[in-house]
Design brief:
Elements: E1 5-8, E2 15-19, E3 25-29, E4 36-40, H1 53-70, E5 74-81, E6 84-92, H2 95-98, E7 123-126, E8 128-131, E9 134-142, E10 156-159, H3 167-172, E11 175-178, H4 186-194, E12 198-200, H5 205-208, E13 214-218, E14 223-226, E15 252-256, H6 263-267, E16 274-278, H7 280-286, H8 290-295, H9 299-316, E17 322-325, H10 355-361, H11 363-378, E18 384-388, H12 394-406, E19 417-421, H13 424-428, H14 430-437, E20 440-443, H15 445-453, H16 471-487, E21 490-493, H17 501-510, E22 514-517, H18 522-545
Helix pairs in contact: 9-11, 10-11, 14-16, 17-18
This protein binds phosphoenolpyruvate (PEP) and magnesium ion (MG).
Residues 184, 276, 278, 328, 422, 444-447, 494-495 line the site of phosphoenolpyruvate.
Length: 551
């Protein structure tokens, strides 16, 4: 949120300036449950100064004491309760002299010396941190697709919401800021894979940020600042003490890899394979809608496009499984591709004509995708598996298997074959799905959470309610994993939640076979998995010896 800003002269202890920013909501202690609850702030209180002048001075005095104790400027965290200030953390501000290294790697040319801290800087907008990192650059607001060309390398792409057509432009951007979207929206998914700092769901980015404004995007903290400034970075996730090779896990840790151009980089993480290849991004890069390829009789061109893209990923991960999802194209996402304007208009595309239901309605599209996989196998890339998205009926699986046979691949024998579990329906019919004959399931928790909780995953207004750790979602996952164990079917996850350490811990405990994480989270998840497995083994050993459990 956009906090108040108080500046105090540490020589005279006089308050030099007070800037009060308005807040729409806050966290309050619920007196009944003792929990924090989010409440709207009444209109008359929104603009009230948060600390009294006396509190500001008292806090500044404390800050000076701590600074003199450590002989270095400090970044303090504190809390106030009934006139008492509690200091809860302090650490040296290390960015004051060597700040340039912490600003965008992309923008090294413009090496002005950013030496200020964020404390006195103007926050232009703020939102949800979707992909970590800090970048500086010029704003380019894209309101419609004709404006894409104005985004040059190193600019900050500002838009309402990205879509797959924007991928090439997103790659050029130093950072991305959107008005809409939650943690699993398109911008969030793609920027994480590209390693580009991204803030989503600001609500007003396209209004308050104007073309050519110079801004700093602190996507670690969800803040957009005016001008170029230094922002202190906490330790980067990659800067881990233990190297990749030293961590051995029983549960496989895979990666989500949608972009062929990043395949080598993704493979260098040492991931145990690719748990999800979304072919939509290669399609978007080609500029043409799959339905258009097929309607124009260009099936062969579509096949070649997929063979090239998937082939690049499969080769980079040679010898490791690479699970390719058949296309999952919502009718509102691809309008700007050639032929996309012929897509039907749906009131609710998230729950509309996409994924396997579309593939079976337009079998030439699905068949072309299967034919591409067959060619990859002929090229020796037998590590390529296939999975079907948004399954709700066993019959969908049956029909798709028949189509695979028609291109010359026997599911389960010639090619690893699985389904995504991303609808509550798939959870409830899991035994039937297993009996039909599948090698694996993969949880698409983005959709599973959306459909289980009834929360539009792209609606930032309710993003705070979107939780894959909701007991209903965890219950479904556990039920499915247990059923899979009974039928000898492998279980996996490829939704965003696989990058969440808490979810990873839960999944290891219930016995999942593999977890797929975003590129930037692979290492962390591997650590969490290894740690959880060790604890489980020790617990089992102690139980075996009959140790009494410590309280
Ligand atoms: C999911 O729903 O979790 C998933 C991986 O698919 P997508 O995000 O592409 O809908
Ligand atoms: Mg999905």
């Amino acid at each position: 949120m956009n906090p108040d800003l108080y500046i105090v002269d540490k020589g005279s202890m006089k308050i030099k300036s007070i800037k009060v920013n308005s807040q729409d909501w806050g966290y309050f202690r619920d007196l009944n449950t003792g929990r924090s609850v989010q409440r709207d702030i009444p209109k008359e209180k929104k603009h009230v100064q948060k600390l009294s002048d006396a509190e500001i001075t008292k806090l500044a005095e404390l800050a000076v004491k701590v600074e003199s104790h450590y002989q270095k400027p400090q970044d303090l965290e504190w809390a106030i309760e009934k006139d008492r200030i509690y200091l809860v953390q302090t650490r040296a501000v290390t960015t004051l002299k060597d700040a340039p290294a912490q600003v965008s790697q992309i923008d090294t040319a413009a090496s002005a010396q950013p030496v200020e801290s964020t404390a006195d800087k103007k926050v232009l907008t703020s939102g949800i941190s979707a992909s970590p990192g800090i970048a500086f650059g010029k704003v380019k607001v894209v309101n419609d697709m004709n404006q894409l060309d104005k985004v040059l390398k190193g600019d900050i792409l500002v838009t309402k919401m990205t879509n797959p057509d924007m991928v090439p432009v997103m790659e050029r951007a130093a950072a991305i800021v959107t008005s809409d979207g939650g943690i699993t929206c398109h911008a969030a998914i793609v920027s994480r894979e590209m390693g580009i700092p991204c803030i989503v769901g600001t609500e007003n980015a396209t209004e308050v940020l104007k073309d050519d404004m110079e801004i700093t995007v602190d996507a670690n903290n969800g803040q957009v600042y005016e001008g170029r400034i230094a922002v202190e970075q906490s330790a980067k996730p990659q800067a881990a003490a233990v190297s990749e090779q030293e961590i051995i896990t029983g549960t496989e840790v895979k990666i989500i890899a949608d972009l062929p151009q990043l395949a080598e980089k993704n493979a260098a993480t040492g991931a145990d394979g690719v748990g999800l290849v979304r072919i939509e991004f290669m399609i978007a890069n080609s500029g043409m809608h799959p339905a258009k390829y097929i309607h124009d009789g260009k099936d062969e061109e579509y096949i070649r496009l997929l063979v090239d893209g998937i082939g690049g990923i499969a080769r980079a991960f040679a010898g490791k499984p690479v699970w390719v999802r058949t296309s999952d194209i919502r009718t509102d996402e691809y309008r700007n591709l050639k032929g996309g304007d012929e897509e039907p208009h749906e009131a609710n595309p998230m729950m509309g004509w996409h994924a396997i239901r579309r593939g079976l309605d337009e079998p030439r599209i699905l068949k072309a995708e299967f034919a591409a996989l067959k060619r990859l196998h002929e090229q020796g890339l037998a590590n390529v598996g296939v999975m079907l998205p948004f399954i709700i009926n066993v019959d969908e699986v049956r029909q798709a298997k028949q189509m695979l046979r028609e291109v010359g691949l026997e599911p389960g024998k010639d090619i690893e074959f699985g389904v995504m579990v991303e609808t509550p329906a798939a959870c409830w019919i899991i035994e039937d799905l297993c009996r039909e004959g599948i090698d694996f399931v993969s949880f698409g928790t983005n959709d599973l959470t959306q459909l289980t909780l009834g929360i539009d995953r792209d609606n930032q207004k309710i993003a705070h309610l979107f939780s894959e750790l909701h007991p209903a979602v965890l219950g479904e996952i556990q039920m499915v994993v247990q059923a899979c164990k009974r039928y000898g079917v492998k279980s996996s996850i490829c939704g965003q939640a696989g990058s969440n350490p808490k979810m990873a811990e839960f999944l290891v405990k219930i016995g999942i076979d593999s977890i797929s994480a975003n590129a930037d989270a692979v290492h962390k998840i591997r650590e969490v998995v290894a740690h959880t497995e060790k604890k489980l083994v020790l617990e089992a050993y102690r139980n075996k010896l009959g140790f009494v459990k410590r309280k």
